[in-house]
Here is the input.
Amino acid sequence: MWLRTSFVSIILVICLYSCDRRDNSMYSQSLLMLEDSLEAMPEKFLRQILEMDTTSLRESDRAFHYFLLAKAKVLVPHSPELLLDESDGVLSYFANRRDSSRLCQLYYFLGRLYADRYAFLRANASYNQAEKFVGQNIRMLFAIKVGEAYIYRFKMMHGMEEECLKRALNIAGELNDSSLMAEAMHELAELCIFEKNYVGAENRLRQALELLPQGKTVAGAEYNKDLARVYLAMNKLDSALYYTDIALQGGHPYDFEMTCNILKGNIYLKKHCLKEAEHIFLKDVERLSLKEKQEVYYKMSLLKKEEKDFQSACEYAEKSIRYRDSLEVNNKAGYISNLNAFQEHERQQRRIARMNMELSEQELSYYRLAIILSFVLLLGVSVIFHVKQAKKKVEVSLKEKELTMVRLQNNQWVTEVKYLQEKRDREALEVESLNQRIEYYKRLNALTVPILMKRQNSQGAMHLKKEEWDIIIQNTDACFNNFTLRLEEAYPQLTLDEIRFACLLKMEFSLSLLSEVYHIAKGSISRKKMRLKEKMQIENMTLDDFIKQF
Here is the structure.
C-alpha cells in the first residue's frame, strides 16, 4: 500500500506540472507557490496550508485552498479529514471559471478519497467526471485508470480490472514512460497472483523489473518482494530467498521490512531451517499488529511442533488463539456476517450439486430409452424383412415411416435435453451472480461495522455524520438492488430516520449494535421496530423478516 501511495504521488506531481496554468492569474501567488511546494514536499508544507486563515480569502482563493487540502489528503494519507460535502461548491466554481485542469484534478482527488472510505459508487462517478475533463493530459488518464482498477479489484470484477490496467499499460506505452509501464505491469502481476496464475505473475514481474529505470529503489524493492512471494507459492525456495534479500537491500520503511522478514521466515520454515525461521519470527514481535502477531505465533507453533518441542508448540498455539480471540472480539459483527454468507454459499453449492445429479439422471434415462427403442426398431425391421419378403414395398414404406417417427422422437429428446442444459446453465449463472453478491455483501458489512465502531465514544455511544449515513445507504442500495428507493416508493410515509433504520435492519445488525447507534436501550429498539411495523401495516410476519425479504 505504501508503494502505491508513493507511486501515485509521483504520478500526480508529473500530472500537475503538465496541467494548463492559463487561469493562474485569478489565484494569489502565495497559494500557487504552495501548490508547487506541496507537489515536491507534501508533508513539509501541509501544516502551512492547514494553519491558513480562510475567512479573509477571496472566493477564488477559498476554492483554491480547498483544492490544496484535497491534494494534500491524497499525497499525505494521514492528514486531517476533508469535509467532502463542501466539494460541490468548489467544483462549481472551477467549472464556471473553466479551469478544466484543476477541475479534473479535484474530481480525481475526490475519487481517491471516496475509494479510501469504501464509497465506491461516488468514487467511480468522480473518476468518470475526471475523465471528461482530462483533455490531452493522458498522464492523468493513467492515474484515473489505475484508480478504477482498484475499485474493480475490491468488487472482484477482475475482467473489468484487467481491462483498466491494460488501458493504463497502453497509455504508458504511448508516453514511452518506462516507470508507468513498469507500474501497470506490476498491477497486472498482482491480478495474476490473486488468480493463482503464478507463471503469468512471474513473467509480468520480471518485465516490470526490466522496464523500471535505474534509481527507482522503492518500486524495485516492492517488485522483488512480490517476485519472492510468487516463488514461495511455486515452491522455488532458493529463488524466493534470493529475491527477498534483494528487496531488503537499502533503507526501507519499518512496515516493509517486517513484511519481508515474515516472508523470509516462511521461506526458512518451508526449507526446514528452523532456527533461522524462529529468529526472524520473534524479532520485534511486540511491534506487530494483532493480526500479524496471531500469524507469527501460529507459525511458531508449527515450527516448535516440527522440532518436537510440544510444550512450546502448545504455548505458542495458545498465544495465537488469544490474539485470534481478540481479533474476533474486534470484528464480531463481521464474523457473524461472514458465517451467514458461508452458510448461504454452502446451501447454494448443495443445491447446484442436487440439480446436476437430477439432470444427469434424466439424461441417462433418455439415453437408455433411445437405445431400447432403437434395438426394438431394428429387431422389428429384421423380422419383417425375412418373414414377409413378398411385401417388400409395403415393408420399406413402413420402415421409412417408422424411421421418420424415431427421428422426430430423437429430435424431440435432443430439444428437451438442450432445454434442460440451457436451464441448468442459466441457474448456474444465477447462483454465481448470487454468490458474488453475497461476497460483496460480506465485504460491505465487514466495512460498515468498522465505520460504526470508529464513532464509538468512551461510553460506547455512536455519533454518525450525515456523510457516513449516506455511505451506508449507498452501500445498501448497491448490494440490495436500490433497497431504499424501492422502500420509499412502496412506503412514501417513511421518514429519513426510518429509512436509515431499515438499512441497518437489512444488514442484520444486532440489538446491541442498534442500541449503540441510537443511544437507547434494547427494549426501546424493539418498540421502535414495533412502531415502524405498524406504520408500514405489516401483518403475519416480523419486521425483520419483512425487511430481509423486501
